[in-house]
Amino acid sequence: MSGTTPQGSAGTRRPDGATLVVALILAAIAVVIWRDAARLPQAGGYAGVGPADVPRWIAGGLGGLSLWSVIEAFRSGKTDREAQNVGPILWIVGGLAAQLALLTTAGFSIATGLLFAATAAAFGKRNLALTVPVGIAFALVVYLLFAGLLKLSLPAGPLEDLVWGLFRGHNGGTPA
Amino acid sequence: MTTFDFLLQGLSVALDPMILLYALIGVTLGTAVGVLPGIGPALTVALLLPVTYGLDPAGSLIMFAGIYYGGMYGGSTTSILLNTPGESASIVTALEGNKMARAGRGGPALATAAIGSFIAGLAATVLLAFVAPTVVKLALVFGPRDYFALMVLAFVTVSSAFGESARKGLISLFIGLALALVGIDQLTGQARLSFGVPQLLDGIEVTTLAVAMFAVGEALFVAGQRGTVDDEVIAVKGSVWMTAKDWARSWKPWLRGTVIGFPIGAMPAGGADIATFLSYAAEKKMSKHPEEFGNGAIEGVAGPEAANNASAAGTLVPLLTLGLPTTATAAIMLAGFQQFGLQPGPLLFATNPQLVWGLIASLLIANFMLLVLNLPLIGLWVKLLTIPRPWLYAGILVFATLGTIGANPSPVELSMLLIFGVMGYAMRLYGYPIAPVVVGLILGPMAEQQLRRALSISQGDLTTLVGSPVSATLLALSALALIVPLILRARGKGKVLSQLASDED
Q1: Residue B460: left (phi > 0), alpha (psi -120 to 50), or beta?
Q2: CA B1 from centroid of its chain's CA atoms
Q3: Which of B172, B173, B391 best tests the A interface by mutation, with the highest count of A CBs <10 A?
Q4: Which pLDDT value is given to residue A174?
Q5: B463, CA 20 to 30 Å: which among B82, B324, B385, B494?
Q6: Are B343 and B319 in contact (CB under 8 A)?
Q7: Interface check B400 vs A, CB under 8 A
């Protein structure tokens, strides 16, 4: 495709990288869907359209959009975008990953408290000695509200067990 | 029974103290998320889906609708006082409203927005009550092919008719459709795209996708921006009350906004934001003071604010009568109905009139609640705007993940939240719309089912799809909605369309 787009004049311009990446991703998804559909039995019944057909059409659509994106990338040329701050993004992604990793072992409050602190850090509150305890306390209140009152099943950890133990009175002490 | 009888019956449901409480919670939450930038009604309803799982269906749905209405009221406050629209449907309000606030007329701007929202909300809800039974009668003769055509029209209008580029809208839509394939095929029970992961057999949760794209994606996007926007909240000086002249200049735009907003919401033609742009353009054209536009013309606040509320009520027409969502919020409300085992559509009016009419009647009451919340109590909401951003977004993400964890506390679900969150961020960054993904995910399986049903009836004959006058007309409209904007953009008239971009709610 390079240089010889139907629109001609694009020869001197560089293609837009982001749009090319989008084209690539769409093509990859299309291939994945197509290969998955190939594995399904053809059970069209009266309709003549079985479980594998609609996926094939969607894969086809994605393939077409991928091609369209390639053409668009060369036709429009490189577009400048405002640079992004990478630091804050990494804080939030890291916070979500930490929550994911700790949720089942440390429980809802601690894992979510860390997410809270990481998000606050992304927006400029870097004082973790303050934000982590605030986050854990906040998440604990949320936990008690939703798991206690609305019976939402949220994963409990040592902290939650401790608080439940306190609530249920001192008979039997606090499980930790 | 006539519509009046049904409405009276609905009122008796709506006046139940518990239902009133649900409505009050809904409108209060809705106003709050409307005021706060970064979260909107679509996200809030998505967050509440898992929480309301065990609660009363009628109450929960009334709460969801209250959130939708409340979001439309609350968004204006942020637009006027902060110049950062709280909702996409309030972008236009910021044009004139913020200028009025800077000129010390913030009070009347807030008042005309609230009263306009009230009048439009009330009138449009009454319209909804009268239009819905007629649409239900029409919908009873709809067959699978007609529903399929209707969904195709919704796909096209949501994704490619408006916005910056048809290509980007269609890409978003197809990503949604592709995600919708994951899980068990509803007609044959075949597992599709589940890659042996048991959690994927149930498909991708609407809650997870919506929360990830709206909350996580938005937080990442705001955090990643270098230049911080001017975040100064303008204090409300002087009287909140409108002068006689303000009233005289406001009442016509309110009514015009209602007339513009309701049909736009009711047609599968995009969300409230489009209605507000059209209303603004209309007011600018009809105004006796065109020179004031851009410097704080009250008509430019009154019209669009009425239009977005009327459009929210209009959106409920296809949602309740056909089960067809035309905005992201409506799509998530549909997921809410399904959570309670209810399928909106003509049958719902027959099998569950208590619920439908209770919902409609509650919305009338909700409008009165919202008027009180948004005029005398406006000061409380202004305080919300002073929450520092780190705490605000940290809190938003805690609640966002709470919804997902509550629905399904598995690492797979949280991984999806993270992946879709990053995807939502990338889509925002490169200008790909979010709403078509959500609509594609919800409507995709329904469209496939209707299509396969229609083809079963015709024994595989594809021409059946254009075989009824309704389906042929709808598909022709879809083709027009796809092709005309392409031609307009190719001729360099795309600017108007990209201004009409439907973003979130």
Answers
A1: left
A2: 31
A3: B391
A4: 42
A5: B324
A6: no
A7: no
